[in-house]
Design a protein that fits this description.
heterodimer; A: alpha/beta; Rossmann fold; nine-stranded mixed beta sheet; two-stranded antiparallel sheet; 6 helices; 13 strands; globular; B: alpha+beta; Uridine Diphospho-n-acetylenolpyruvylglucosamine Reductase, domain 2; Uridine Diphospho-n-acetylenolpyruvylglucosamine Reductase, domain 3; Alpha-Beta Plaits; 4 domains; five-stranded antiparallel beta sheet; 35% helix
Chain lengths: 266, 461
């Protein structure tokens, strides 16, 4: 590891949300219906880290918790400029809610050791909670700033960032800290073909639950460590475009009536 | 109101229903233009009535009626053409098939049965939902199937599996006398008689109205990736194209773009062109049956790039990143349009594309003008754009255009590889097409349409 910021980027592999099918009757996402990709916000997180590394030097470790195939997202991260990739995978990690997920990630970060900055996407497109990042910070007892849309300045000790919470706040945060970033912060770069091919052959460190023993309590991982369960997902029904044609002298009145009925006008 | 007989209007309303006959200059105005650059676009005739049938039978009745009243019929698709092919240039009927937009997918036969008014986007989505794939991307996704076939659209994904003509297996057409004719069907092989279907494909609405098509689909390519290969100059980039193909790499698309137009397009879309280095780029879309095959192609391309003097190529694998590149590429035309006089589609044998582009550069220098160029490099079909120049007359633009056409023809090429003749290229037909060819076309038109009611004033000089 060289000098500069040691950054840890947390990423998750998710189904391509633009393609995924929802099982409306059973109230669940059919994850097998779409190809897997890196959570788009996490690419912004990674890009933030790479840009900071380019500006002030540093080292980027990416960590992902997921099934073995999440390995491809880590390789993608290496191709885009990350230096080290760790996959947390174990049956014990399965069924985790945001609390157990953030606990497991925080435990892995403790094992990694010293760091200056943890960067996450603002949320995942499949869970949509935005909780995991801030919860990791709480487990590690470090400050966090969520919804960062701009980094004004960065040193080895502190960051000056803009947090977009509906209104924008200029926040200075001492390091070590965690930030979650929005899509507005940057446009993730494409990896070079050369680096993609190199990353295919790179080694990914795989950590299971046992390898985290000594850094956290195993009973707080996965389903066992989860305090919440999803019992139902409700999908809003989609209504297609509809054309109506009104004839005759009272056409305008009829149209007004329809628009009022739908509360488009008062 | 218009000059068409009131008896005709009443009968049209009886056929398609009152709601689907549109009159009045304000209301028909949205149905008389296409995407042809305004400086060369013909003045549309607003003395028209727009008719929107909902079935082949209704189209047939409209054409019988038009015959009876000797009234021109201008069939219209999505209005995405670039040569004024659907613009009504005389009083008559604009026939919009937008209501006929149903698509049925026959998975077993790998065929989409699509009505003419369905859009390319509808076809791509319906194929995708059925787990299949329509490989070409013949232009704007708002284009309609009827128009795509009538214009034999090409687009950016022709190299691996072909242009529109290569996908059409059957057509239902309505002849100008109102007769309904089915040509071909869900067949891969059919040698029964002269191939009239192929004659209709690319006939630009002058022989018959297409109402339905049977279109070949493919199984999905599960592994896809989009590469952006930067080069320092146009010459080096374009000359790399045949070498990529010689190396046995057959991409779904191999497009050529340049920095100024591509950045302008990206900015207009609120996106960023991903490549910071280089002035000219090849966009290579690979589509393979497995990741192993895909990465094997990537390895070959990477070693080839070193031989081709490219700069460091980039690779997009996620759907969004790949789609953004294609979107930026697809919107170049819209971003250049305000400053453009004409978009050319002269096409040369693929191996001659380098020589052709050298000639284009030489023409640009000689006339002291900028000719931004991009397009389907591997098809020998790069779009050269003639841009507005201060103080130039139409004759000046014509001179540049004719020089580019002559350069293409001299290399064994054609003045139009995909946009067709429409209205605006008619004046070049006599100059660049064999007189016997023109005579045969005129005679064929007469056999199909003796009263010349279907899209008159188009294609033929």
């Amino acid at each position: 590891m060289n000098n500069g910021l040691h950054m840890i980027v947390l990423i998750k592999q998710v189904p391509d949300i633009g393609k995924v099918k929802f099982n409306v009757e059973e109230g669940r996402i059919d994850r097998s219906s779409a190809p897997l990709e890196t959570n788009p916000f996490d690419l912004n997180a990674l890009e933030t880290a790479i840009q900071l590394k380019e500006q002030i030097g540093g080292y980027v470790t990416v960590v992902s918790m997921g099934p073995p195939q999440a390995d491809s997202s880590l390789r993608d991260a290496l191709a885009r400029g990350a230096d080290r990739a760790i996959l947390l995978t174990d049956k014990l990690f399965a069924g985790a809610d945001t609390l157990a997920t953030s606990y497991t990630l925080a435990t892995a970060i403790r094992k990694i050791g010293s760091f200056n900055l943890i960067i996450c996407g603002e949320k995942t497109v499949d869970g949509d909670t935005g909780q995991v990042g801030p919860e990791v910070a709480e487990h590690l007892n470090i400050p966090h700033v969520a919804y960062v849309c701009e980094i004004r300045s960065a040193t080895l000790d502190k960051l000056l960032v803009v947090s977009d919470m509906g209104d924008k706040y200029l926040v200075e945060v001492k390091l070590p800290a965690l930030i979650t970033v929005t899509k507005d912060i940057n446009t993730p770069r494409l990896p070079t073909l050369r680096n993609v091919l190199k990353a295919k052959k790179a080694s990914i460190e795989v950590w299971n639950a046992d390898s985290l023993a000594g850094y956290g309590e195993l009973c707080r991982f996965g389903l066992q460590g989860s305090m919440t369960t999803v019992f139902k997902i409700v999908f809003p029904s989609e209504e297609g475009r509809k054309g109506l044609i009104f004839h005759g002298g009272d056409a305008v009145e009829k149209l007004v009536e329809v628009l009022r009925g739908r509360r488009f006008i008062g | 109101m218009n000059s068409l007989s009131s008896g005709l209007i009443v009968k049209l309303k009886e056929i398609v229903g009152e709601n689907w006959v549109v009159q009045g200059e304000d209301l028909v105005a949205g149905y008389v233009l296409d995407e042809t650059p305004p400086p060369i676009r013909p003045q549309p005739n607003l003395d028209v009535v727009v008719v929107k049938p909902n079935s082949s039978e209704e189209v047939s009745k409209v054409l019988k009626l038009a015959n009876e009243y000797d009234t021109p019929v201008f069939p219209r698709g999505g209005g995405t053409g670039l040569v004024g092919g659907c613009i009504p240039t005389a009083p008559g009927i604009v026939l919009s098939l937008e209501r006929m937009n149903r698509i049925v997918i026959d998975r077993d036969n790998l065929i989409a049965e699509a009505e003419a008014g369905a859009t390319l986007r509808d076809l791509l989505n319906a194929s995708d939902e059925a787990g299949l794939f329509f490989p070409p991307h013949p232009g704007d996704e708002g284009a309609q199937i009827g128009g795509l076939i009538a214009c034999n659209a090409g687009g950016s994904r022709a190299i691996k599996t072909g242009v529109m003509r290569n996908y059409v297996r059957g057509l239902e057409v309505i002849l100008p006398n109102g007769e309904i004719l089915k040509l071909g069907g869900k067949l891969l092989k059919n040698n029964f008689g002269l191939d009239l279907m192929q004659l209709i494909i690319g006939s630009e609405g002058i022989l018959a109205v297409i109402t339905k098509a049977w279109i070949r689909l493919y199984p999905k390519f599960p592994a896809t990736a989009t590469l952006v290969i930067p080069f320092e100059s146009r010459t080096v980039a374009v000359k790399a194209v045949p070498k990529i193909l010689h190396a046995g790499i057959l991409p779904l698309a191999l497009e050529y773009v340049e920095r100024i137009p591509i950045e302008r397009s990206a900015e207009r879309l609120g996106l960023k062109w991903p490549c910071k280095i280089g002035e000219s780029f090849l966009i290579v879309i690979l589509a393979e049956q497995s990741n192993e095959a895909l990465y094997a192609q990537c390895e070959r391309l990477l070693s080839l790039c070193e031989e081709l003097n490219s700069l460091e190529p980039l690779l997009a694998e996620s759907r969004e990143e790949q789609e953004n590149i294609l979107k930026i590429r697809s919107e170049i035309y819209s971003s250049l349009k305000p400053d453009m006089v004409d978009i050319l589609d002269a096409t040369v044998p693929p191996a001659s594309i380098g020589v052709f582009m050298d000639k284009v550069e030489e023409i640009a220098k000689r006339y002291n003008t900028y000719l931004p160029s991009y397009g389907h490099a591997a098809d020998g079909n790069i779009h050269v754009h003639i841009m507005k120049e201060q103080g130039w007359s139409m004759e000046d633009y014509d001179r540049v255009r004719n020089e580019i056409y002559a350069a293409a023809v001299e290399l064994g090429g054609t003045i139009t590889g995909e946009h067709g003749i429409g209205y605006v290229r008619r004046k070049s037909v006599g100059k660049f097409l064999n007189p016997m060819y023109v005579r045969l076309m005129k005679e064929i038109k007469h056999i199909f349409d003796p009263k010349n009611i279907l899209n008159p004033g188009k294609v033929l000089p």
